[in-house]
């Protein structure tokens, strides 16, 4: 260790100071002891390391930074370590929206399953490796574009809303459905290949947990529950992450509203396409599911057995009911003949009643006509009088049924005097007024 010499002047004694007179001893020195002193501490260790390896300060800091990065990488090499793609390292920071945030942080195999702790550890690891200060210390000429990509990926994945939006469009997390040929290779291949497909799609479900595809030993109820769930799948998936950037220029509001409408329409279209895609996926899986075929076969067998039993019972019932049917038809035929005869008689009676009613109406009209429309002899009935009398006759006739018509016609038959005919009509009008069928004074010609 180098020795340093520092010269400091002693303070000036005050005037009149005398050592023998002014010095007063207030204590005594203890007996000296010999002890060994050893240099310790991080700064001494750094100094010793530099001396041993003959390094300068900058060289030692650069080497130590490299060792710290390697130490962190070794500590996190368990579940968040993966090789870096050279093309990804050269990505432009301004193109952050098109980057794979999970791949940037080295979480490609975890993706939507990555925990907050894994994301923070992966970010720390990437920062120690690609921080501009660290890169400069290691002598690297790499710019800070990829470091900005790391920071943007960490910002997106630590924000629950932004992360969900990115997960909605993360195509790398999807599992492609198998072909019909691959799924039909063996009984277990169908479940092995289709199971991960639905596990991947299940991340978008609002309802958790999601029913599993199961295996060839799953019950009919479990299989029906699985397909019913997916045919009525309620997805939270959205497509805001792929929106066109809305301009922040407040002066151009029309352009801003146009972009917003365009984004909304694009989201709706993508949502409809995603629903159709998922429905087609479920249909394809259902078409190749041997369990469905087995359940249908069992159902058909049960239906066939029930059908044979039902047919035998139907034949027995038919044979048993055949005689009863014939007897019933015979009785029905006899009844129909009787009803037909009665109907014919009733028709005849109706016709007779109808004819009688017509005859009686002619008698009623003739009764007033024969007595000069209720005017005295020698007085001519004008058209107005005729219309009034016949109008009243028709009005009264409309209020009478067939029996009342016959009674009234009987009373008028044989009468030849206007006074007698008028009295009968007046009496009938009064009866109808009393019954409420005519209003008082409504009949001008017959009621007076």
Summarize the model shown:
The protein has 448 residues and is an all-alpha fold. It is built from 17 helices and no strands.
Describe the protein's architecture and organization.
With 448 residues, this protein is mainly α. Helices cover 62% and strands 0% of the residues. The chain has 17 helices and no strands. Helix 14 crosses helix 15 (383-398). The chain starts with 18 loop residues before the first helix and ends in a 14-residue tail after the last helix. The mean pLDDT is 83.
Beta strand %: under 5%
Helix share, percent: 55-70%
Low-pLDDT runs of 5+ residues are none
Please state the structural category: mainly alpha
Topology:
Layout: H1 19-22, H2 42-53, H3 57-75, H4 86-89, H5 101-104, H6 116-130, H7 132-137, H8 145-158, H9 160-168, H10 180-183, H11 187-201, H12 220-231, H13 253-288, H14 290-370, H15 383-398, H16 402-412, H17 418-434
Helix pairs in contact: 6-8, 14-15, 14-16
């Amino acid at each position: 260790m180098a020795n340093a010499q520092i010269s400091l002047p002693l303070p000036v004694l005050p005037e009149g100071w005398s050592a023998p007179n002014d010095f007063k001893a207030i204590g005594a020195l203890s007996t000296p002891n010999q002890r060994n002193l050893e240099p310790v501490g991080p700064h001494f260790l750094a100094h010793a390391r530099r001396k041993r390896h003959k390094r300068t300060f900058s060289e030692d800091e650069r080497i130590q930074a490299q060792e710290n990065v390697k130490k962190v990488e070794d500590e996190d090499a368990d579940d968040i370590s993966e090789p870096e793609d050279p093309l990804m390292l050269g990505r432009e920071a301004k193109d952050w929206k098109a980057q794979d945030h999970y791949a940037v942080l080295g979480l490609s195999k975890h993706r939507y399953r990555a925990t907050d702790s894994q994301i923070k550890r992966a970010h720390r690891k990437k920062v120690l490796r690609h921080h501009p200060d660290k890169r400069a210390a290691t002598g690297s000429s790499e710019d800070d574009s990829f470091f900005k990509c790391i920071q943007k990926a960490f910002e997106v994945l630590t924000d629950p809303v932004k992360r969900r939006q990115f997960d909605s469009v993360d195509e790398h997390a999807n599992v492609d459905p198998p072909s019909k040929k691959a799924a039909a290779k063996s009984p277990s291949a169908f479940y092995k290949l289709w199971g991960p497909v639905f596990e991947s799609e299940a991340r978008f479900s609002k309802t958790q947990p999601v029913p599993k595809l199961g295996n060839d030993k799953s019950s009919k109820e479990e299989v029906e529950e699985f397909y019913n769930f997916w045919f009525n799948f309620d997805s939270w998936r959205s497509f805001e992450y792929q929106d066109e950037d809305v301009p922040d220029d407040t002066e151009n509001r029309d352009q801003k509203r146009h972009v917003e409408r365009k984004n909304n329409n694009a989201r709706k279209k993508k949502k409809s396409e995603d629903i159709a895609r998922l429905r087609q996926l479920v249909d394809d899986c259902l078409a190749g599911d041997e369990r469905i075929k087995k359940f249908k076969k069992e159902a058909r067998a049960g239906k066939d057995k029930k059908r044979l039993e039902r047919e035998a019972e139907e034949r027995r019932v038919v044979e048993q009911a055949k005689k009863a049917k014939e007897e019933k038809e015979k009785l029905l035929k006899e009844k129909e003949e009787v009803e037909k005869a009665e109907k014919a008689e009733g028709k005849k009676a109706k016709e007779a009643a109808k004819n009688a009613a017509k005859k009686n109406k002619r008698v009623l009209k003739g009764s007033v006509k024969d007595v000069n429309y209720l005017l005295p002899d020698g007085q001519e009935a004008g058209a107005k009088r005729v219309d009034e009398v016949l109008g009243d006759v028709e009005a009264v006739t409309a209020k009478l049924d067939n029996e009342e018509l016959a009674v009234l016609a009987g009373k008028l038959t044989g009468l030849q005097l206007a006074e007698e005919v008028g009295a009968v009509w007046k009496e009938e009008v009064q009866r109808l007024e009393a019954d409420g069928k005519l209003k008082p004074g409504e009949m001008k010609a017959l009621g007076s």
